[in-house]
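Intended use. Records like the one below are meant for learning the mapping from a protein sequence to its folded structure. Do not use them to infer anything beyond what is encoded.
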Amino acid sequence: MKLIYLALASVLLTGCGGEEFQDLHDFVKNAGADMRGKIEPPPEVKPYEPFIYSNEKNLPDPFKPRKQESRPSDLAGTNQPDRDRPKEALEEYPLEGLKMVGFLFQNKIGYAVIRAPDGKLHRVKAGNHIGLNFGLIKEVNDTGLIIKEMVQDSAGDWTERMSSLQLLE
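Structure written out for the chain above:
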C-alpha cells in the first residue's frame, strides 16, 4: 500500500514540474541579444599650461593684499568709531558670551540685565556700549537689545552692522 501512495505522489510531482514560464525565460534571455549601447567618447583633455609670473609685465603681486585708492581727505574718518572714549565694562566681552537675563523698567527707562562670562550682572540702557565691535545699544525692550556695531572690512573701511541680544527664557 505504501508503494502505491509513493508511486502516485511521484506521478503528481512530475506533472507539476513542467516549464510553465518557458516563453518568459526565453524572452528575457534573448531580449538584449541584438542591442548594443553606444557610449560617447570622453572629452578631449587639454594639456595644462602653466602661467609664468614675471614682474617685467608690471603685474601686481598676487600674494599682497590690494587696497583701494585713498579717499579725499574730507571723507577720511567717516564712520570711524571713537577710540578715545573710555571703555565700558561690557566692552571686554564678545556678544556671544553675554546673556540678557532680565528686563527692568524704572523712571520710564527700560534697562536690560546682562550676565557677563565672569558671572557678574550689569544693568544697561540705550546709549551704553557693549561687545568687542564698538557696539552701541540702540534699543532696549522686554524681549532683547538692538545693537549697532562698527566693523572694519579688508579695505580698512568701517561699516555698521546691526546685531541683537535676546532675553533668555
